[in-house]
């Protein structure tokens, strides 16, 4: 499931590719035909993210206001993805979302370069590629197309319904609070400390903090040296303040770069890929899926095998103390931790 930074990058991609344009909306799959009919011919005037929820705001083309009259709410869930294509006049993100092993986006499709073919002129006709797979909704703009497949939620909502969804969500470390909004840092601390549930479970509760997924959960708890199984009410407020501040830095950096990197430079060591003392790794450490990053292969990018402290590093030595990183389950999700640093 994409984490919050990815959905914020989606909102930015829609703004860059489609904002201010009158869009053609269809449902090639047919399951969203009524919703697509409501949005067809409308102008995209807003694109926002709150945690893992994407909101696209539309207004009538004949209106003079940029206030959306209706919104499309999308939650990608485990299998949802947006796929983009363009006419070559601008760089276009190829895909954001599933499969789950992908973190952030895949490679972008660049704009045409000199000698690499003509860039279409505004008056050139452009035909988007045909839909691939079960496309729930397709948007076609002046220079790009966006296809949505496999979402958990896809619905047209009013402004009041959008606010009701947001009211159920916890604070988002990536969002800048609007004037008059409650302090998100204090809201997070209050939400954790009112509960007896393990802090590792609370970080995945979107009502407590919006946008944190399994990677940010594992890595932020390690950086805080916090036991994931410690009851929320027993975590000191000052520790939670620091945890929130760290999430703000990490998740906003992920939004900027398209990759999750949580290790400090002094802790990165590609040689730390084998258990201590030459022992064979436990079964959990064998055959682990490689976590892809949007920046894989980019010059000066942190390699994927140096980007995390504990996530997908079960059976390997802790980068800080050398103890073997453990993997267990908490409410059906994998939980990674160092038994020494987080004991």
Query: What's the total number of strands?
Result: 13
Which residues sit in consecutive blocks of at least 5 with pLDDT less than 50? 99-122, 274-287
Instruction: Please state the structural category.
Output: alpha+beta
What is the CATH C level class of the largest domain, in words? Mainly Alpha
How much is the radius of gyration in Å? 22 Å
Quickly give the CATH architecture of the largest domain: Orthogonal Bundle
By DSSP (H or I, 4+ residues per run), the number of helices equals 7
Which sheet architecture does the biggest sheet show? Answer: 5 strands, antiparallel
> Mean pLDDT score, rounded?
86
Proportion in β-strands: 15-25%
CATH topology of the largest domain: Helicase, Ruva Protein, domain 3
Strand order of the largest sheet: 1-9-10-5-7
């Amino acid at each position: 499931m994409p984490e919050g930074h990815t959905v914020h990058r989606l909102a930015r991609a829609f703004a860059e590719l489609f904002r201010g344009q009158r869009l053609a909306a269809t449902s090639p799959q047919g399951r969203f035909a009524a919703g697509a009919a409501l949005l067809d011919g409308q102008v995209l005037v807003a694109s926002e993210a709150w945690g893992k929820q994407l909101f696209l705001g539309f207004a009538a083309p004949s209106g003079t206001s940029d206030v959306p009259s209706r919104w499309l709410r999308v939650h990608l869930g485990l299998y949802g993805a947006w796929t983009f294509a363009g006419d070559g006049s601008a760089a276009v993100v190829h895909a954001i979302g599933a499969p789950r092993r992908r973190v952030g986006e895949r490679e972008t499709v660049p704009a045409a370069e000199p000698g690499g073919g003509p860039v279409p002129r505004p008056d050139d006709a452009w035909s988007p590629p045909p839909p691939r797979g079960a496309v729930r909704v397709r948007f076609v703009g002046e220079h790009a197309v966006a296809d949505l497949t496999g979402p958990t939620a896809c619905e047209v909502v009013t402004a009041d319904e959008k606010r009701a969804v947001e009211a159920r969500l916890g604070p988002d470390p990536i969002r800048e609070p609007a004037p008059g909004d409650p302090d998100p840092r204090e809201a997070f601390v209050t939400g954790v400390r009112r509960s007896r549930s393990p802090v590792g479970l609370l970080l995945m509760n979107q009502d407590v903090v919006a946008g944190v997924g399994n990677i940010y959960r594992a890595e932020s708890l390690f950086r805080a040296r916090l036991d994931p199984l410690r009851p929320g009410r027993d975590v000191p407020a000052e520790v939670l303040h620091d945890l929130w501040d760290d999430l703000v830095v990490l998740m906003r950096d992920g939004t900027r770069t398209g990759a999750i990197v949580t290790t400090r430079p002094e802790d990165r060591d590609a040689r730390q890929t084998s258990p201590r003392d030459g022992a064979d790794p436990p079964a959990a450490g064998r055959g682990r899926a490689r976590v892809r990053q949007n920046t894989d292969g980019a010059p000066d990018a942190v390699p994927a095998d140096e980007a995390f402290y504990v996530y997908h590093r079960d059976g390997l030595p802790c980068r800080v103390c050398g103890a073997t990183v453990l993997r267990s389950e908490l409410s059906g999700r994998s939980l990674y931790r160092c038994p020494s640093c987080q004991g």
